[in-house]
Amino acid sequence: MPIEIKExxxxxxxxxxxxxxxxxxxxxxxxxxxxxxESVEQAVNIQQRKKER
Length: 53
Prior knowledge:
The chain has 53 residues and is mainly α. The protein contains 1 helix and no strands. Pfam families: DUF5908.
């Protein structure tokens, strides 16, 4: 039996860091944003495949 996801809640905690750590945190933020965008793309692809059926 297929499972339908009607809502998806994503919760993240962001800690603000000092100016000295912003260069390292910006790289980490870029990785996090890339991971989030890939997850969203995968969820959209799954929904589109389900609609095609």
